[in-house]
Design goal:
Four copies of one chain form a homotetramer.
Chain A lengths: L6 H14 L7 H17 L9 H30 L3 H15 L2 H4 L10
Helix pairs in contact in A: 2-3
Chain lengths: 117, 117, 117, 117
């Protein structure tokens, strides 16, 4: 099991941006749009894939999939840094919120949305 | 500057899923689609926002924005765990790749894509 | 079935698919995913664009923009044909619904969502 | 300009916008973002759906699906009107372009992208 990014790598992501003077292009709109576009590139790998073919796609396209996931992590690093989001805290809060929306006894084994449970 | 997720919180994200028996619904297709949908919810906060209004939107909607970002981090945790992706390695590789595509002297101060530089 | 485009062009869109035996790949999931991906390609043209640069982007990239819009229309033609949606009726119904959600006196000059009006 | 829908309904779509003075919010960026968001809402209906459950989802959710498709058609009507796109011509051009990328003898029965054929 692999945790998300080390402080050292986070610093390198930010240094990469500074060296190119790209922070001027980054704000909530451009970064969230970019996250949508990278997520779409990730989803493109299963655009036409039947359920029975999913494992094969993961095997055949792993390097490309890892690149899209890395792009997403890089964009999220810019976003949480620029907005000053404490991701650890935000995720802990969201898990608590989700636990209320999806109580174990109602949500267990169901893919329904909380408002349909 | 805030690093991504601690091993403890990652374990809690996975325990949340186990308690609800939701792993059966997760694969590359459903998780990448879900990442697109959460990214779209994040982008919705600036759907109609003019450049001059961006700071105000961030101020007014911070709690909601943090929730969308947390949802993205949770989904990415499921994806990298299930696919066995070493995110630290994947991001380090991608930064190296991006450094070749976007050499500092050509990319500095430009928002152009690498194939238009 | 009400055509999005002329009946002749709609027929050519469907004949294009038949000649390639592609209907087997089309269902609500694959077509809606494909619509997301094409919409993302359209949105990519303004990924980094400031408000003041929008007109210039439209001028410079018009042929590419028209191609993305055409792709969206083609995918929507497959979807409404396969699902048997009467688009003319569906749009008329939606306009009526939107008129209730966005009464002129409250919505005039506002970009707020109906639940925030 | 060729309407996506009947000229009468297209006129009603535009009158709806005029009555609310919403054209001021519409440009290539805001409309293409909105198309992404509506497409994501459409895709949400099959977010967790297995291949074997697709027909059931279409049956159970038809009214909601028709509303999302109508929203997409309304947004595309704004976009092609504002940009002065002749959709009939754009689609005819794209079909010709696709016919070159996907020749029948190579593309028949294959879901591969043109650059992998």
């Amino acid at each position: 099991m692999i945790a998300m990014l080390s402080p050292d790598l986070t610093a390198r992501i930010l240094a990469f941006r500074d060296a190119r003077d790209w922070k001027q292009f980054h704000n909530l709109r451009t970064l969230s749009t970019s996250i949508v576009l990278e997520a779409a590139e990730l989803a493109e790998h299963t655009q036409w894939t039947r359920d029975t073919e999913l494992d094969e796609v993961v095997r055949a396209r792993r390097p490309l999939i890892e690149q899209e996931v890395a792009d997403l992590a890089i964009l999220m690093t810019y976003l949480i840094t620029d907005l000053g989001i404490d991701l650890e805290q935000a995720v802990a809060d969201k898990l608590r919120n989700n636990a209320e929306r999806y109580p174990v006894d109602k949500a267990r084994g169901s893919a329904k949305k909380y408002d349909e449970l």
